[in-house]
Write a structure and sequence with these properties.
Distance between the termini: 37 Å
Number of helices: 0
Radius of gyration: 13 Å
Number of strands: 11
Shape: globular
Largest sheet: 7 strands, mixed
Order of helices and strands: EEEEEEEEEEE
Helix content: under 10%
Protein backbone atom coordinates (compact mmCIF):
# COMPACT_ATOMS: atom_id res chain seq x y z
CA UNK A 1 0.00 0.00 0.00
CA UNK A 2 1.32 3.43 -0.94
CA UNK A 3 -0.49 6.70 -0.29
CA UNK A 4 1.09 9.98 -1.44
CA UNK A 5 -0.48 13.19 -0.14
CA UNK A 6 -0.07 16.53 -1.87
CA UNK A 7 -1.66 19.94 -2.27
CA UNK A 8 -0.96 21.57 1.06
CA UNK A 9 0.42 25.05 1.50
CA UNK A 10 0.05 28.43 3.14
CA UNK A 11 -3.31 30.15 2.70
CA UNK A 12 -5.01 33.14 4.28
CA UNK A 13 -8.12 32.71 6.42
CA UNK A 14 -11.15 32.32 4.17
CA UNK A 15 -9.08 30.79 1.41
CA UNK A 16 -9.28 27.39 -0.26
CA UNK A 17 -7.02 24.44 -0.96
CA UNK A 18 -7.53 21.07 -2.60
CA UNK A 19 -5.59 18.12 -1.25
CA UNK A 20 -4.91 14.99 -3.28
CA UNK A 21 -3.89 11.48 -2.32
CA UNK A 22 -2.50 9.18 -4.98
CA UNK A 23 -2.99 5.53 -4.07
CA UNK A 24 -1.24 2.43 -5.33
CA UNK A 25 -0.50 -1.13 -4.33
CA UNK A 26 -4.09 -2.13 -3.56
CA UNK A 27 -7.52 -2.17 -5.17
CA UNK A 28 -8.39 1.45 -4.45
CA UNK A 29 -12.03 1.18 -5.49
CA UNK A 30 -12.68 -1.56 -2.95
CA UNK A 31 -11.80 0.49 0.13
CA UNK A 32 -13.36 3.30 2.10
CA UNK A 33 -10.90 6.18 2.42
CA UNK A 34 -10.49 8.90 4.98
CA UNK A 35 -8.65 12.10 5.78
CA UNK A 36 -7.12 12.62 9.19
CA UNK A 37 -5.28 15.68 10.44
CA UNK A 38 -2.87 16.41 13.26
CA UNK A 39 -2.37 19.92 14.56
CA UNK A 40 0.85 20.94 16.34
CA UNK A 41 0.92 19.52 19.86
CA UNK A 42 -2.35 17.62 19.43
CA UNK A 43 -3.39 14.08 18.65
CA UNK A 44 -4.80 12.91 15.33
CA UNK A 45 -8.29 14.13 14.44
CA UNK A 46 -10.57 12.35 12.00
CA UNK A 47 -11.78 14.76 9.30
CA UNK A 48 -13.82 12.84 6.73
CA UNK A 49 -14.58 9.44 5.24
CA UNK A 50 -15.86 8.40 1.83
CA UNK A 51 -17.24 4.99 0.94
CA UNK A 52 -15.51 2.83 -1.62
CA UNK A 53 -17.93 3.79 -4.38
CA UNK A 54 -18.05 7.43 -3.36
CA UNK A 55 -21.77 7.41 -2.63
CA UNK A 56 -21.53 8.02 1.11
CA UNK A 57 -19.53 10.73 2.82
CA UNK A 58 -19.08 11.66 6.46
CA UNK A 59 -17.55 14.73 8.09
CA UNK A 60 -16.38 15.90 11.47
CA UNK A 61 -18.57 18.65 12.87
CA UNK A 62 -15.62 21.04 12.74
CA UNK A 63 -15.38 20.86 8.93
CA UNK A 64 -18.91 20.01 7.81
CA UNK A 65 -20.18 22.51 5.25
CA UNK A 66 -16.67 23.74 4.44
CA UNK A 67 -14.81 20.60 3.30
CA UNK A 68 -15.79 18.14 0.58
CA UNK A 69 -14.28 14.69 0.19
CA UNK A 70 -14.35 12.98 -3.18
CA UNK A 71 -12.58 10.27 -5.12
CA UNK A 72 -11.82 9.22 -8.67
CA UNK A 73 -11.55 5.44 -8.71
CA UNK A 74 -10.38 5.46 -12.32
CA UNK A 75 -7.39 7.56 -11.27
CA UNK A 76 -6.86 5.88 -7.86
CA UNK A 77 -7.01 9.33 -6.28
CA UNK A 78 -8.69 10.77 -3.21
CA UNK A 79 -9.40 14.50 -2.81
CA UNK A 80 -10.28 16.95 -0.08
CA UNK A 81 -11.62 20.33 -1.18
CA UNK A 82 -11.23 22.75 1.71
CA UNK A 83 -13.05 26.09 1.60
CA UNK A 84 -13.48 28.91 4.12
CA UNK A 85 -10.30 27.84 5.84
CA UNK A 86 -9.68 28.94 9.42
CA UNK A 87 -6.48 29.15 11.47
CA UNK A 88 -7.76 26.16 13.48
CA UNK A 89 -7.54 24.08 10.30
CA UNK A 90 -3.73 24.37 10.43
CA UNK A 91 -2.40 20.81 10.60
CA UNK A 92 -0.68 18.05 8.72
CA UNK A 93 -3.31 16.25 6.66
CA UNK A 94 -3.07 12.54 5.95
CA UNK A 95 -5.11 10.24 3.77
CA UNK A 96 -5.58 6.83 5.31
CA UNK A 97 -7.18 3.46 4.84
CA UNK A 98 -7.09 0.21 6.78
CA UNK A 99 -4.13 1.13 8.94
CA UNK A 100 -2.04 2.73 6.20
CA UNK A 101 -1.34 6.45 6.13
CA UNK A 102 0.20 8.77 3.59
CA UNK A 103 3.23 10.87 4.45
CA UNK A 104 1.08 13.92 5.09
CA UNK A 105 0.85 17.39 3.60
CA UNK A 106 1.12 20.57 5.65
CA UNK A 107 -1.76 23.05 5.61
CA UNK A 108 -1.12 26.41 7.27
CA UNK A 109 -3.88 28.99 7.54
CA UNK A 110 -2.48 32.36 8.52
CA UNK A 111 -2.33 36.00 7.52
Amino acid sequence: VQLVDSGGGLVEPGGSLRLSCAASGFTFGSYDMMWVRQAPGKGPEWVSTISNGGHSTYYAASVKGRFTISRDNAKNTLYLQMNSLKPDDTAVYYCATHGSWGQGTQVTVSL
